[in-house]
From TrEMBL, chains A, B:
Pfam families: Na_H_Exchanger. GO terms for biological process: regulation of intracellular pH; sodium ion import across plasma membrane. This is Sodium/hydrogen exchanger. PANTHER family: SODIUM/HYDROGEN EXCHANGER (PTHR10110), SODIUM_HYDROGEN EXCHANGER 9 (PTHR10110:SF61). Belongs to the monovalent cation:proton antiporter 1 (CPA1) transporter (TC 2.A.36) family. One of its GO terms (molecular function) is sodium:proton antiporter activity. The gene is Slc9a9. Keywords: Antiport, Cell membrane, Endosome, Ion transport, Membrane, Sodium, Sodium transport, Transmembrane, Transmembrane helix, Transport.
Length: 646, 646
């Protein structure tokens, strides 16, 4: 007896010591497998299965193994205990069992029908980690990276179309899915598969909004590898980045809407409240993200007389950059806004301002760090999605609902892309051709965001049904559409092997040849953005970065004392060009040089790009290292440098 | 009523959405503050408070704020509920409270006397995170970085002394602390502050072993900044790195020892079991860590005919390197070994073999990535230690115990350093001078490992007393000794501003001048290590890396077919030097060139080094970028290159 007790105590301690190690090891193992597979695929130029699809497949197999190999050891887990003494669920529960006090931590509220799902395997329960890890740790690097690596030049050229697809398109998609699903739900109620009061129209809209977040990471990776037409790439990338933000805020607004009195009736007040909520959260998150980026830019720009600049300490600079960007996300979440939107715009703003102030070392460090985090986080998420199919305990597979969802998703994508493209083509100088529209239709993959939104709430039966269905749609679209991208490109006869810079110049030349009037170029960028560009170039860039014309030249005479104080000494070399067209072109060149020296890559893929590309990168970075150092020396010696040389 | 319910549900959901964001934000904020402080200190050349001390201070203040600003909202947390139906604590508990089922997750077993500590503030509870996060996520990067950045040349020169301090010294320290504490515990029992049966001699030894883990991160940072004598630096760094591993395994072995029958009597069988356990776990962890590193080396070395090498894809290479090294830690933990020891030797082996196979891009990426993770993890740990003083709910401040512990720690350090230095000086050609011994005595700071070992188990009252005491010793040593390092160096007249390479050469020259016999140089490295070096250079390096002589030259004639298969084409350029002394010097040069081109830095500090150092680094890296690229080109063109040029 004595011996036994000792043995048990040692065993307990051991378990405590190795807590969490096994679960992390499983994820590590899956990721290692995925990386080795990517390597294999790169060698054989396999394109029918992308790394994300592979990661998901491995996750699936691992989930299957865990479910059938590990045994349900915890017989008492499924029993529900009555507790009359408590009024509500405290966050920590102390329970006295046979003279030992055990501490239990509140996890969540669950419905009665889910209880048997918990007669469970503790291993499976451990593998299904907290959705808050998803939101606070795995998603931010991916979204930030998307914002940080946005190709601004092409993005702004197509801004109108991108905004239309992202805002209007997502709204259309959400409503269409909601309506179709409502039809199917009615049918299910009719067939007796569902009770009337369980599934409201707002639930359908909720499902619609979460399924509207597209994630064409697979498609974009292949586009990048094959150098597909830049406009198509930009439209798709821009749409998917912004569309995530819109879908998340929309989901939140709809979940707040729910008029409890008669959930199926339209409540105008609640509706407008939701719309206001949507706008408020979007704007607030945007402001939060940008202001963190501006603070970072200001800190990295500071040159107080007694201080060495922060860029002399690349590690501190990188650390600050990383922490402030993450704080943008966390602050937004803590303030009740949407972190994803905040971190996206934080990324865009950081790339626009802060990046220019960073030391060369930090530029490389931040680029590689975010690339690496994006790569890992993305593969963890896809592994996890694979795992979830078997480790999640409360799946509800309803064939009718699943069929309905598949139909709804494709109909919604079609009624987003085709009508909007038609409308946009009325206004666009350079039309979106038919084959681009088909390709965009085909690229409506669902991924991490849809999954993350669905897993946030899996308490009620409708929500569980939604989660299961969303998971299946993710599997299908990633494997089938992701795998079919390369054949589809050939079939639709879309140009590949395009050099983005050459492409833009060629288009500009052909345009100016066909129309010599300067106004065409002007019309290309909308008036609102020309005003913004002017303001940005004349005032913000000089204040926040070392680039741009000196403030003394752009501000009125009487502001000179202030202007001199705020302008970086290195800005005086640059002279303000007059003429609007000239300026816009100049601005394009700026972003171009920025991009070629930074090589901010497309999410996740540049990193593992083809052999030739990597070779080229090495030379570039070597050059950058030396050339940049010389530049730094010049700066230190007080020589003003031309911005166009940087 | 309807409205209220709706409001509550929204509020609940909101809380769910932002779960964890506030806590992470607090840590982010503390880290940002710390970075800004480091920047400030760098500018004013402040050395009386190091960044780790600063991080701890901020943590302390934040803990104070959280405790006094946030309120205890959860009145039911402190109540213990009786549960007769349960036999043992299941991992998940489902409780039915007023018709709602709540899910609770098992956290830990607690003693009756701790219960009132939980009448608590949910915010404080959230801030005290799981020790498993400490062990699985925060510690591995720090320890790996220490191994990865070990200056092998100086390390092996002083290996005998380092091993003596680390193994024998830690054992002495553990026993001395144990004995002194046992005396104090007896006194406390006598004074009625403690009950006899609560605190055994093994508990005292347990405390002794956990307090024996020294962590002179602050001292080493200042040493590095001031370029203190390399031998002193190496002795201290080597001792502290290995000593952590020894202390951890020792703590584990002692916790297993506990002969339950008469805990104060000596039980020979249990003792030898513990010793065997110690050796087994140490050897097993060593083997586990090294084998993961060897696997990484083999994968990165592979050049199958149909395959492009992994180094063509820097991101995959970095990812694999990172994941396999982390897996070494996790596998060891999962197998019941010690992850810290595994990841330490994994780091050493990775630096020795895998590093040579990496592409230039990956060399830089891995170096910067591990540096960055080390920097963040270290500061998070020190912030957390500061926080723990106020957020931890079950502190037991016993003045006598604390006083005893302070005495014990200093007596133990003295009886470790002085007698062992005396013994070592009998055998060493180059004596450890008196002032070095004083400095080593002074540098016996306690830090992350002691804290981590103490926080692992805070269930019983003795363990809580130990935790509180360990925390106070960490505070005292980091602030007082860490802050006093620079004055102490001056006072002890220890050389600063030494160039490590020059230093070694000068010493070698003076030695060969005073004693022309080759045997002196031989005697310098112990025979065991010369054999190992020979084996490593002739067989392992050629098999695992591109460096070293071709196997065809080192293996016997009849092995030629196998040898040809295993040798990298680039190895043929290197010829085996004959003569043992020549070889050892050559080997030193190898490591030297490796170090100067890599600049693997001392943990955490190189990164934030002084201005001059950073400037120099930039040039080096620029050079490396171009020079390295040329080398790669040569390799690609099939030109064999001399290893000494690399």
């Amino acid at each position: 007896m004595e011996k036994l007790k000792k043995y048990v105590s040692v065993k307990d301690e051991d378990q405590f010591y190795h807590q969490g190690a096994v679960e992390l090891l499983i994820f590590n193992f899956l990721l290692i497998l995925t990386i080795l597979t990517i390597w294999l695929f790169k060698n054989h130029r396999v394109r029918f299965l992308h790394e994300t699809g592979g990661a998901m497949l491995y996750g699936l197999v691992m989930g299957l193994i865990i479910q059938y190999v590990t045994k349900s050891s915890d017989v008492e887990s499924g029993t529900v205990y009555e507790c009359e003494k408590l009024k509500s669920g405290p966050s920590t529960l102390l329970i006295n069992i046979t003279d030992q006090v055990y501490e239990y931590q509140y996890k969540r509220e669950i419905s009665h029908h889910n209880v048997n799902g918990h007669q469970g395997n503790p291993m499976l329960q451990k593998m299904t980690f907290d959705p808050s890890i998803f939101f606070n740790i795995l998603l931010p690097p991916i979204i930030f990276h998307a914002g940080y690596s946005l190709k601004k030049r092409h993005f702004f050229r197509n801004l109108g179309s991108i905004l239309t697809y992202a805002f209007l398109g997502t709204a259309i998609s959400c409503i269409v899915i909601g309506l179709i699903m409502y039809g199917f739900v009615k049918a299910m109620v009719h067939l007796g598969q569902l009770k009337q009061w369980e599934f409201h129209f707002t639930d359908c809209l909720f499902f619609g909004s979460l399924m509207s977040a597209t994630d064409p990471v697979t498609v974009l990776a292949i586009f990048h590898e094959l150098h597909v037409d830049t406009d198509l790439y930009t439209l798709l990338f821009g749409e998917s980045v912004l569309n995530d933000a819109v879908a998340i805020v929309l989901t939140h607004s709809i979940s707040i809407y729910s008029p409890k009195k008669n959930p199926n009736a339209f409540d105008a007040a609640a509706f407008f409240q939701s719309v206001g909520n949507f706008l408020g959260i979007f704007a607030g998150s945007f402001a939060m993200g940008s202001s963190y980026a501006v603070v970072t830019a200001l800190i990295s720009f500071m040159h107080l007389t007694k201080f060495t600049k922060l860029c002399e300490f690349p590690m501190l600079e990188t650390g600050l950059f990383f922490l402030l960007s993450w704080s943008a996300f966390l602050s937004a979440e803590a303030a009740g806004l949407t972190g994803i939107v905040a971190v996206l715009f934080c990324g865009v703003t950081q790339a626009h301002y802060t990046y220019n102030n960073l030391s060369l070392d930090s530029k490389m460090r931040t680029k590689q760090l975010f690339e690496f985090m994006n790569f890992l986080a993305e593969n963890v998420i896809f592994c996890y999605m694979g795992l979830a199919l078997f480790t999640f305990q409360n799946h509800i597979f309803n064939p009718l609902f699943i069929f309905g969802a598949f139909v709804a998703v494709f109909v919604a994508r079609a009624s987003n892309i085709y009508p909007l493209s038609f409308l946009l083509n009325l206004g666009r100088k350079q039309k979106i051709p038919r084959n681009f529209q088909h390709m965009m239709m085909f690229s409506g993959l669902r991924g991490a965001i849809a999954f993350a939104l669905a897993i946030r709430d899996t308490d009620s039966q409708p929500k569980q049904m939604m989660f299961t269905t969303a998971l299946l749609i993710v599997f299908f679209t990633v494997w089938v559409f992701g795998g079919g991208t390369a054949p589809m490109l050939t079939w639709l006869q879309i140009r590949v092997g395009v050099d983005p810079d050459e492409d833009l110049k060629a288009k500009a030349v052909s345009q100016s040849a066909s129309n010599l009037d300067k106004n065409t170029t002007k019309a290309e960028s909308a008036w609102l953005f020309r005003i913004w560009y002017g303001f940005d170039h004349k005032y913000l860039k000089p204040i926040l970065t070392h680039a741009g014309p000196p403030l003394t030249a752009t501000l009125p005479q009487w502001c000179n004392p202030v202007a001199r104080l705020l302008t970086s000494p290195s800005a005086y070399g640059d002279q303000l060009k007059d003429g609007d067209t000239d300026y816009i072109i100049n601005n394009d060149e700026l972003t171009e040089t920025y991009e070629s020296s930074v090589q901010v890559p497309v999410p996740s893929q540049d990193s593992t790009g083809s052999i030739q590309a990597t070779g080229k990168e090495d030379i570039h970075e070597g050059d950058l290292g030396l050339g940049g150092y010389k530049l730094q020396l010049q700066q230190a010696a007080g020589q003003p440098q031309m911005n166009s040389l940087a």
